[in-house]
Design brief:
This protein has helices at 11-20, 23-35, 37-56, 63-77, 83-89, 95-102, 107-114, 123-130, 136-151, 157-173, 182-191, 198-206, 217-224, 228-237, 242-248, 258-265, 325-334, 339-342, 344-357, 362-374, 378-391, 396-409, 412-418, 425-428, 437-453, 457-468, 475-491; strands at residues 312-313, 435-436. By secondary structure, the protein is mainly alpha-helical.
Length: 494
C-alpha cells in the first residue's frame, strides 16, 4: 500500500476557500488547516517569504498583499506563534504603504483584534507600546488590545487600569500634548469605569491634553455612574470570538449598511425656539385669580431674555489710573497685535514685574495667562488660573476663566458652587448698575456652554439668544450654537 501523502493545503486552494466560500465552509477549511501542523508551517513559511518580498519592494506585485492579508487572518486564527513577529516585521514600512495596499482592510486591525486571543498577559503589549522604534499606529493598536485582554478575562481590570493610569499620570505631569494616544487611554479607562483614575482624566481635559470634541467628558461622567462589576460584566459579554472576527474580516465580503443609508436620508429636526410669548390676559401663575398683566406681569419682563440682559455699557471698564504713566504706556504696548508673539520672554518679564508692583490688579494675571497659552506652556497657565481665583475670588473674569477650566474637567457641580447658584450678572453683582459688553458676552457664552453640558437645552438657548441681541457674527457664538444644537439632537435621540 503506497504511503499516504500528508494533506497539505495549496495556496490556490486556500484563496478559493477563504475568499469565496460561505462563512461556514470557510471555518471548516480553517479548522482543517489548523489540525495539521505541516499546513501551519507551510503557511508560516509562505507568509515570511511574501513579507520579505514586499518589504524589499513595496510597490511590486499587488496580488502579494492580498495573499499576505489572507495568510495573516488564517495564522492569527490558528494561533501560530510566528504571526506576531511576522506582523511586526511589517511595522518597518510606512503606514501609508500599508493603507494603500490593504485599503479599508487595515493590516493593523488584524493585529489589534486577533492578538488578545493568543497572548495571556500584558507584557507583549507593553513591549510594543514602550518601544521607540515601533510606529505609532502599532502602538495605538496595542493600547486598544489591553481592553480586549480584560474582555477575554486574560488579565484583570485592575492590572490594565494601573498600567494605563501610570501612563496617563506621566502625560499629565509632563503636560505632554504631543502624545498621540491620550484619547485612546481615556476611552479605555472609561470603558473600565476607572474611578481610580478620575483625577488624572479630569486634569488631562483641564490641561488641554485631550479635547471634548474628540472624546466628550460626558462619556467618562456616565461611566462613573456604573459600578465596575456591572461594567466588567457588560464588557465580557460583548467580547468578540475568533470566529466572529474572522467572518468580519473576510477579504471579499461586501456588507451594505442600510441603516447608515437610511439615516443620511432622514431630515434632522430643527431646534425649536424655546421663547414662548406670554398671554397677558391669562390668569396669573401666582394663583391670585387676577390677569397676568395686572398682577406679576405688571413688573415682570415680557420676554425671558430680559431677565438675562443687564444694563450694557459699550465703554471699556478697566480703570488704569492706579498705574504710573510709564506703566500704562507699557500695558498699551503689550496689547498691540503681534507684540507678545514676537518677544514672549520679554512680555513675561514685564508682566511678572508689574504683578509684584500692582498685586491687586487681576488684569495682569489674565495677560500673563495669555502669554503662557501663546507659548503653549500649559503647566504655568493652569497654575496661574489657580492662583488668580484664590487671589480674586469675586472677580468676574477670574470666575469665568476658572469655570472654563472646570468645564473641560467635566466638574459641573463645582461651577454651580463657584457662582453660588447665581446665573445672571445682576444676581452676582447686585451693587453694579452696568456691565461692559465684553463681560456680558463672555458670561453668556460660559453659561450657555454650562447649561448645554448639563442638558438644560432651553436655558442654554436663552443665553445664546441673549448675547445674539448684541453680537451675532462671532466665531465663539457660532460654536455655542452648534454645541446647543448637538446636545438638543442627542436629547431627542438623533
Amino acid at each position: 500500500m503506497p504511503e499516504q501523502k500528508p494533506n497539505i493545503v495549496t495556496l490556490d486552494r486556500l484563496i478559493e476557500m477563504i475568499c469565496y466560500s460561505p462563512p461556514e465552509h470557510q471555518l471548516l477549511f480553517i479548522t482543517h488547516v489548523q489540525e495539521n501542523p505541516k499546513n501551519v508551517d507551510f503557511l508560516d513559511n509562505t507568509l515570511k517569504e511574501l513579507i520579505s518580498l514586499v518589504t524589499k519592494d513595496p510597490k511590486g506585485d499587488i496580488y502579494r498583499w492580498d495573499i499576505i492579508y489572507i495568510l495573516l487572518n488564517i495564522l492569527a486564527y490558528c494561533e501560530s506563534k510566528t504571526t506576531f513577529s511576522s506582523l511586526l516585521s511589517l511595522s518597518s514600512l510606512d503606514v501609508s504603504i500599508l493603507e494603500k495596499n490593504f485599503g479599508e482592510f487595515c493590516i493593523i486591525e488584524i493585529f489589534s483584534l486577533f492578538m488578545p486571543h493568543y497572548i495571556n498577559d500584558l507584557e507583549p503589549l507593553k513591549k510594543i507600546i514602550e518601544d521607540p522604534n515601533i510606529a505609532d499606529d502599532w502602538k495605538g493598536s496595542a493600547i486598544l488590545s489591553c481592553l480586549e485582554l480584560v474582555a477575554l478575562q486574560k488579565v484583570s481590570r485592575q492590572e490594565v487600569i494601573e498600567y494605563l493610569k501610570k501612563m496617563l499620570k506621566k502625560i499629565v505631569d509632563d503636560y505632554d500634548h504631543s502624545y498621540p494616544f491620550t484619547d485612546e487611554i481615556i476611552s479605555i479607562l472609561s470603558e473600565l469605569n476607572a474611578f481610580e483614575a478620575e483625577e488624572e482624566i479630569r486634569e488631562a481635559y483641564g490641561r488641554f491634553l485631550v479635547f471634548d470634541e474628540e472624546f466628550p467628558i460626558d462619556e467618562f461622567n456616565k461611566a462613573l455612574k456604573i459600578s465596575p462589576e456591572i461594567g466588567l460584566k457588560n464588557l465580557i459579554s460583548t467580547a468578540f470570538t475568533k470566529e466572529e472576527i474572522l467572518k468580519d474580516l473576510r477579504l471579499y465580503e461586501k456588507v451594505l449598511d442600510d441603516e447608515k443609508a437610511s439615516s443620511e436620508d432622514t431630515p434632522v429636526p430643527k431646534r425649536p425656539s424655546f421663547i414662548q410669548p406670554l398671554d397677558q390676559n391669562a390668569l396669573c401663575t401666582c394663583k391670585s385669580q387676577k390677569k397676568y398683566k395686572k398682577c406679576c406681569g405688571a413688573t415682570a419682563p415680557n420676554n425671558p431674555l430680559q431677565a438675562l440682559i443687564p444694563s450694557i455699557s459699550f465703554e471699556p471698564e478697566e480703570d488704569l489710573h492706579t498705574f504710573e504713566p510709564e506703566d500704562q504706556e507699557t500695558l498699551f504696548q503689550l496689547s498691540e497685535p503681534g507684540l507678545v508673539e514676537r518677544d514672549q520672554e520679554k512680555a513675561l518679564r514685564i508682566l511678572k514685574y508689574l504683578i509684584v508692583k500692582y498685586p491687586n490688579f487681576p488684569l495682569l494675571h489674565f495677560l500673563i495667562q495669555d502669554v503662557y497659552l501663546t507659548q503653549n506652556n500649559l503647566k504655568e497657565y493652569v497654575q496661574s488660573l489657580h492662583q488668580a481665583i484664590q487671589l480674586f475670588p469675586n472677580d468676574l473674569n477670574c470666575k469665568l476663566l476658572y469655570a472654563d477650566y472646570l468645564l473641560r474637567r467635566g466638574e459641573f457641580v463645582k461651577i454651580e458652587i463657584l457662582f453660588d447658584g447665581k446665573f445672571t450678572l445682576q444676581e452676582l453683582y447686585p451693587e453694579k448698575t452696568t456691565f461692559s459688553l465684553y463681560d456680558f458676552k463672555h458670561f453668556s457664552l460660559l453659561m450657555g456652554t454650562y447649561f448645554a453640558k448639563i442638558k438644560k437645552i432651553q436655558q442654554a438657548d436663552l443665553y445664546l439668544r441673549a448675547v445674539k441681541q448684541f453680537i451675532n457674527d462671532d466665531e465663539s457664538i457660532k460654536e455655542l450654537d452648534q454645541l446647543i444644537d448637538f446636545e438638543y439632537q442627542k436629547s431627542i435621540g438623533n
